[in-house]
Amino acid sequence: MKKLVVLVAGLLSVALFAQAEETQNTKENTFSMKVQIRPRAEYRNGVLFPRPKDAESTGFINNRARLSLGYERDRLSIGLSAQHVGVWGQDPQIDKNGRFILNEAWAKLDFGSGFFAKLGRQSLVYDDERIMGALDWNVAGRYHDALKLGYENTNNQLHLILAFNQNDEKTIGGTYYAPGAQPYKTMQTLWYKHLFDKSFNASFLFMNLGMEGGDAEKQNSDTKYLQTLGTNLIYTPSNWTIGGTIYYQFGKTKSGRDVSAFLWAVNAAYQIDPQWKIGVGSDYLSGSDGADGKYKAFDPLYGTHHKFYGAMDYFYASSFVNGLNPGLWDNQINVAYKPSSKVNLSLAYHYFSITGDVYEGNDKLSKGLGSELDFQVDWVIMKDVKLSAGYSTMLGTNTMKAVKGGNPSHWQDWGWLSININPTIFTTKW
């Protein structure tokens, strides 16, 4: 932490000195500094999975403290961000081993005519974040170590993302990649988006993931490849926003099983007036029931699952039990009300079902998992400061108990309160 403070102070001194030396007409460099403080208090009584019988509810306050530095000139941009994340009370008052780590460190090179390269630790966000997202709800966020090559103009965006991960600098021993860091060993992703007009755009994604399937004890590498191919369509006529998504997965699992899985989603929202907005949506992710040799459960990979499958994070943000992967069908309706420019209220209802077959003994269970109700309020207190709060409850079925554990017949709920303070505290040009 001390080293980082010294570094920041040095950068500020250099920037201020350079600013004083240069004239107004020669300023081509920009340096900025942003700070984010985001504590969130949570009451948990059945979040992620149903609370078991006689289990006590819990509460805590987590916090993100993030410092972001940015530098820009004509054809070069650099981003550097460090953060401390954790729970209030986790660190001692006198802490000699503070946890403050880099979450972003990248450089972007602009080659002109729309071509660029961005390399380093970075967030990868595409389309509606269903497959690749920033996961900003999570206190730590999500970041990749990758090289992004791209071309962009007014109506087209084309990105190629490449990644190759290892645990350490090896001298010998091959390329075995032990689990615990990035979830994949290699990645190649091609993404293209075209804006047909102001009301319609379409994007296409192909991702090839290399997953380490080798023996951990012998550390022999055996890479299995999983492919994901799909499209995302957005149509915005008048007061409507209509979206459609479909993806297909094929290739191999880590254990070598053949994969054949799919996801489709449709959604529509209508802006009734400046204050009221309503929406409906349906997401279908195929599941695997073990009836044949193929693995049929779709994996939404590195998307922001909290955004889609209920705020209580029962699905894909947390795992099913007993090795089950029964898929999910999420049908929802939502309404948002904006009484003023600074306040927004939203309410969403989800009905969840499995898409594969699950048995209890010889009896096949019903598909229905239950209902979730999510309420949220956001209030912009002042510039760069927003207060948010939410409350959710889950009413689960016997099938929910079979696939998620716990005891859904008991009352399950969750509440939270968060303040996000995120100002740009310093900007200079020279």
From TrEMBL:
Q: Which GO terms describe its biological process?
A: defense response
Under the heading Pfam families, the entry gives: Alginate_exp
Note whether Signal occurs among the keywords.
yes
Q: Organism's domain of life? A: Bacteria
- Signal peptide boundaries: 1-20
Q: Where is the Alpha-defensin N-terminal domain?
A: 1-54
* InterPro entries (UniProt xref): Alginate_export_dom (IPR025388), Alginate_Permeability_Chnl (IPR053728), Alpha-defensin_N (IPR002366)
Keyword annotations from UniProtKB, A to Z:
Signal
Protein name per its UniProtKB record: Alginate export family protein
